[in-house]
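Reopening this one. Same input as before:
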Amino acid sequence: MLEKMKMEWFSNIRGDILAGIVVALALIPEAIAFSIIAGVDPKVGLYASFCIAVVIAFVGGRPGMISAATGAMALLMVTLVKEHGLEYLLAATLLTGVIQIIAGYIKLGSLMRFVSRSVVTGFVNALAILIFMAQLPELTNVTWHVYAMTAAGLGIIYLFPYLPVIGKTLPSPLVCIVVLTAFAMIVGIDIRTVGDMGELPDTLPIFLWPDVPLNLDTLLIILPYSIGLAVVGLLESMMTAAIVDDLTDTKSDRNRECKGQGIANIGSGLLGGMAGCAMIGQSIINVKSGGRGRLSTFIAGTLLLIMVVFLGEWIKQIPMAALVAVMIMVSIGTFSWSLHYQSYKTPVIHQYCYGDNGCYCGVDS
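Same output, byte for byte:
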């Protein structure tokens, strides 16, 4: 037990810390954007991302996977928030966690072994395209400075690792964010920054029980949303776990992950946050930046809160072009470029029937 804990937490300390910093910086604008999609204050998504990441680091079944507020979950909350308000969203978040814990105990996570490789590949490629398309609003109707900054960011990300010694020491996405932020502040370029996404909170989250009537009417309101959130959250988390398994050549405990997601969402709801799940983009950033253990997830969540509450004035200066460059790198790295090659190499099976005695299956490559 102790050896397993050391392996999952302290086998890659430097890599996990550096990767956690990169993920925390990338989480901030996404958490704000998902809050806006759901129709709630930005601090709801930021508090959720902090809580879910920290809790899942301890109770999750996939070390190195990042969980936080996500766009898929935010889309399911829009109607509930619009018709009933934030308090009902918090109640739905708690019920979502309970449903996910039940799913873990009845071992629904084990069903992922029946999902074929082609389904996972399709999911990954579709997600890579969506991640890229999500960056387009930041690249349309902007000045040439944004394109130059984005191109410079991609150059740093892909060329920095080739530098001797230091190129293997620091994750290039972190270098990209730091260098472009420093350049924008020194030169004074007028481009869109994290601060333009929304107001950052200046206080720590507090315990908050949803102010809703504890009766059957409330249950009937939140139950359909909670079931949808639980199902979508578990599907995305299980798919992401499968991808991280492949990237790290290790195995995850799917049923433990189901229960962990439930516990994390209950914690989020009690701290005024919305429901979340595993994030494919951030998980890939974490792995590509050298994160492998639970420490990377814990660092990402903890630093997220520290940065937005205590270092907000600095974080607001990060140019969105730097984060767009990181997400484009994620999109390129996520897409399965070998798909067409594999399809070409897959043998085609033709069936040749001979009389009444049966058939012979011939394989044409």
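So the earlier flakiness isn't reproducible anymore. For the record, The CA atoms of residues 34 and 147 lie 24 Å apart.
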